[in-house]
Structure formats: C-alpha cells, structure tokens
Specification:
By secondary structure, this protein is α+β, with helices and mostly antiparallel strands. It has a single domain, classed as Aminopeptidase (3-Layer(aba) Sandwich), CATH 3.40.630.30. The protein is built from 3 helices and 6 strands, in the order αβββαβαββ. Bound molecules: coenzyme A (COA).
Length: about 110
C-alpha cells in the first residue's frame, strides 16, 4: 500500500530485493534515485549497485539517458553514500545548499 501512496502522491516508484530497495522518480531530464537502502548485513556486496542497475534499465526503457543521485551532507552516512555513488560511476554535478547532486550518464546524447 505504501508503494501505491508513493506512486500516487509523489510520483515515486520502488525497486526492491531481499536485501534492500531503491526509490526513484522521473524529472524532466533525469531518472532520480531519491533513496536507496541496503540492510547492514548485505552492505559492500554490490546490492545497491544491482538495485541501481535495475533502476537504470527501467530508465533506459522509459527513454531516459541519465541517472541522478544525491547526498545530503547532514546525513550521518553521507561519506559512505558518496563513496558508493562515485564508485558506481556517478560524477558530481552540482550542489544545492547542503545537498550534493551527482549524475551517471547511461547513454550519450
Ligand atoms: C549507501 C548504501 C546504499 C551502499 O550500499 P551497498 O550495497 O553497500 O553498496 P555497493 O556494495 O553496491 O557499493 C558500491 C561501491 O561502493 C563501495 N562501498 C560501499 N560501501 C562502502 C564503504 N562503507 N566503504 C568503502 N567502500 C564502500 C563498494 O565497495 C563498491 O565499490 P566497488 O564497485 O569498487 O567494489 C548502504 O551503505 C546503505 O544502505 N546505507 C544507509 C542508507 C543510505 O545512506 N542511503 C544513501 C542515501 S539515500
């Protein structure tokens, strides 16, 4: 039911696995991965990367060529989130106050 709420009220969608989930939404130019979470026991085993791959496939099928990610510098896990995104292939795009936005190009224009 929460997935239905996210889709109807916030135009957000979810991919999930046994060990985690990613929440994404489409903007004008990007498929934005707003949230991604992996259980503590499953971390650093490429679970988040697999979830992001699933979102990337959905994005490409929907005609989107770029993923957007973000790191809120106020979040206690900001450094790990930044490392994981950079290692996955995101590049820093811009910052907006305390939030750093990153982009991964899936397909060149
Ligand atoms: C951030 C998070 C989603 C990463 O999930 P994960 O499944 O551990 O990530 P992956 O295993 O796919 O990691 C991708 C890369 O980052 C590296 N990495 C991930 N966590 C790391 C850590 N703590 N230290 C060093 N490197 C790390 C991985 O080794 C991998 O690099 P590689 O491809 O060179 O091997 C997870 O730590 C998490 O759920 N944190 C709490 C929620 C959160 O902060 N979400 C992000 C903001 S919404």
């Amino acid at each position: 039911m929460y997935k239905q709420y996210l889709a109807e009220r916030e135009q957000k969608h979810v991919v999930e696995s046994e060990h985690g989930f990613a929440i994404y939404r489409f903007t004008d130019k990007w498929c934005y991965i707003c949230d991604i979470y992996v259980t503590q026991e499953a971390r650093i085993k490429h679970e988040a990367s697999r979830l992001a791959d699933s979102v990337a496939e959905i994005a490409l099928n929907a005609g989107y060529k770029r993923l957007l990610g973000s790191v809120d510098t106020r979040d206690a896990g900001a450094s790990i989130s930044l490392i994981a995104q950079l290692k996955y292939g995101f590049k820093v795009l811009y910052n907006d106050g305390q939030v750093i936005y990153l982009e991964k190009i899936l397909k060149p224009d």
